[in-house]
């Protein structure tokens, strides 16, 4: 039987890598949420988002959805403004908009 003593080191490195990825993703989500927060504030002032909505949580939600779409492009044609509008209104903002998107 071969010596597999290095496997513990490999697992340690994998765990450290996963932890670092989690930290980096958290920073990315924070930066994206910071970008969206003033836009959501503007939309709330216009009546598009409920007055009692927690905009910090909304911004994080939209940031996570955006990052998901960036990392795994879907079925939408991002060169088509109509498709982009539908994507944003129904998939990114669908969870935070008031009324029919």
Explain what this protein looks like in three dimensions.
The longest helix has 39 residues, at 7-45. It contains 3 helices and no strands. The protein has a domain at 28-92. The radius of gyration is 19 Å and the shape is elongated. By secondary structure, it is an all-alpha fold. It has helices at 7-45, 55-71, 81-92.
Features of the shown structure:
101 residues, 3 helices, mainly alpha, 67% helix, single chain
Q: What gyration radius follows from the Cα positions, in whole Å?
A: 19 Å
Terminal CA distance: 63 Å
Strand count, sense and barrel status of the largest sheet are:
none
Written as H for each helix and E for each strand, in order along the chain, the element string is: HHH
- Can you give the mean pLDDT? 85
Overall helicity: 55-70%
Percent strand equals under 5%
The secondary structure category is mainly alpha
What ranges have pLDDT less than 50 throughout 5 or more consecutive residues?
Answer: none
Which shape, going by the Cα principal axes?
elongated
How many distinct helices? Answer: 3
**Strands, count:** 0
């Amino acid at each position: 039987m071969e010596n597999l003593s290095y496997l513990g080191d490999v697992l340690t490195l994998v765990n450290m890598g996963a932890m670092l990825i989690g930290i980096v993703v958290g920073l990315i989500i924070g930066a994206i949420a910071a970008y969206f927060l003033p836009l959501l504030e503007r939309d709330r002032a216009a009546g598009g988002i409920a007055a009692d909505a927690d905009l910090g949580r909304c911004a994080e939600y939209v940031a996570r959805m955006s990052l998901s779409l960036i990392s795994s492009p879907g079925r939408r044609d991002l060169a088509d403004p109509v498709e982009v509008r539908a994507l944003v209104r129904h998939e990114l903002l669908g969870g935070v908009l008031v009324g029919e998107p």
